Amino acid sequence: MTTTIGDAGPESGHGSDDHSDQPGGLDELLDRHGPTPIDYQQKEAVSKALQNGASIDAIVIAGDIRRSTSLMKEAVSFQVYAQIINRFVTAIQIATRSCGGWFDKFTGDGFLAFWVTTGDASLKGTVLRNVVEYARQQRVFFGELILPDLRLNSQNFPAGVGFAVGIDGGPTYPATIAGQLTIVGPPVVGAVRMLNTAGPGEILLNVRPGQSLYDYQSRIWKHGEVEVTQEWRKTKEYEQQVFPVVSKDDSTTVSAFRKMRNRPPRGPEPLQAPPAPESPSA
Questions:
Q1: Is 57 part of a structural domain of the chain?
Q2: CB 114 within 8 A of CB 59
Q3: Which of 13, 26, 51, 192 is 20–30 Å from 19 (CA)?
Q4: Per the structure, how many domains does the chain have?
């Protein structure tokens, strides 16, 4: 679902110089979706691609909360549920733009964003690493600050709740749809496919970015800090190669997701007996 800001004109899309349907024009549109502070080199690249129907290279990330519909159904208070989701997606939007990303859209319980890599080829590896680090941080944020509140607002707490992420990269095409900036192209499909294949609390990369990180991970992270593995999984369309990101904090974070499902309501800590006095030394 795309949130519309302002009035959309009868025609919108890429390959057009007419962006008069945007409040404030193209410049304001790009500022509204782009990094903060805005990267003017990226802004120029996106602007030219949007007006000329050209592509930009980008890393695309799709994320959402697994079992969010069940959580809404089981909510004690729908108002509190909406407040929790609003806090989550607002934090995601701010973090995306402050980390150099372009925020595409909310999807109800998730989001789509992208990082522009058009330009210096040597920067692509750095951008990809930063996107993965961003995804790891958002997963921890969800586990520590959002998941406990969702559980406490639930009549019944379903299995499989977690924040999942899919990542892909390659040529994408900026477009305007319903007065908003978005991107289209195979990397968007790939990121969403990885998201749909990922389990709760998991980060999955498609083959192009995944193979790149897999080959050069020893140069990016310290030994044991992060590991990019490879395996075959069934997607909605067919079985294909995917690249999960496993980090040393995963066991803590993912196990926290599981423990949270069975955690009793918060209450006073049980009283403990004072320690026994030490025996006097001879």
A1: yes
A2: yes
A3: 192
A4: 1
Considering Cα of 224, then 228, then 233, then 236, what sign does the dihedral take? positive
CB atoms within 10 A of CB 234: 9
Q: What is the pLDDT of residues 129-144, one digit of tens each?
A: 899 999 999 999 999 9
Kind of pairing, strands 56-66 and 162-177? antiparallel
CATH number of the domain within which 54 lies? 3.30.70.1230
Is pLDDT above 90 for 79? yes
DSSP 55: -
Average pLDDT over residues 224-230: 84
Q: Which stretches of the chain are DSSP H helices?
A: 25-33, 40-52, 68-73, 78-98, 123-141, 147-152, 186-197, 207-220, 250-262
pLDDT in tens, 91-103: 999 999 999 999 9
CA atoms within 13 Å, Cβ hemisphere of 140? 12
- How many Å apart are CA 278 and CA 197, to the nearest integer? 57
Q: Are 27 and 201 in contact (CB under 8 A)?
A: no
Query: For the whole prediction, is pTM greater than 0.85?
Result: no
